[in-house]
Specification:
It is a single chain. This protein has about 140 residues and is an alpha+beta fold. It has two domains: about 40 residues, no CATH class; about 100 residues, K homology (KH) domain (GMP Synthetase, Chain A, domain 3, 2-Layer Sandwich), CATH 3.30.300. Helices cover about 25% and strands about 40% of the residues. The chain is built from two helices and six strands. The strands form two sheets. The chain has a three-stranded antiparallel β-sheet with strand order 1-2-3, with no helix packed on it. The protein has a three-stranded mixed β-sheet with strand order 4-5-6, covered by helices on one side. Strand 1 and strand 2 form a beta hairpin. The longest helix has 23 residues. The N and C termini lie far apart (about 35 Å). The model has no long low-confidence stretch (mean pLDDT about 90).
């Protein structure tokens, strides 16, 4: 198993620099108010979309179904009091492909939602849904 190691370095003035295990750097704006970099909570939403999207594509490819376009929209509802963690996340999968079947997409979304690394006791409620747009991509 390959070891994973990320690091986050204080950059001052409300900023951190995150270094991923693959060596990619990303600026993080702790407050998220300057719109000059994503906040940690925004990065969690993007990571959730990427994680579940990778699962869904992999599952559909194993079923020999062709996805020609795919977008994941993640909406988060945070607690008003501290800690301001997410209390609910809505993940909407929007897929385009030729011959995508409702049952196959429904199963892929369900499997990803139930088995993804972000699914654990005490975490935010996660609601997933999907739309299939059949046609040429």
């Amino acid at each position: 198993m390959k070891d994973s190691h990320a690091s986050v370095h204080w950059g001052g003035n409300g900023f951190f620099i995150g270094i991923s295990p693959s060596g990619h750097a990303i600026t993080i704006d702790i407050d998220g108010e300057r719109s000059s970099a994503p906040s940690p909570m925004e990065l969690l939403m993007v990571a959730l979309g990427g994680c579940t999207g990778g699962d869904v594509v992999s599952i559909l490819e194993k079923k020999r179904l062709r996805v020609t376009d795919y977008r994941i929209e993640v909406r988060g509802e945070r607690r008003k009091e501290h800690p301001r963690a997410f209390k609910k996340l809505e993940v909407r999968h929007i897929l385009l492909g030729e011959g995508l079947r409702d049952d196959a997409v429904k199963q892929a979304v369900r499997l990803s939602t139930n088995t993804a690394a972000w699914r654990r006791r005490g975490a935010a409620e996660i609601v997933a849904n999907y739309v299939i747009e059949n046609g040429r991509g």
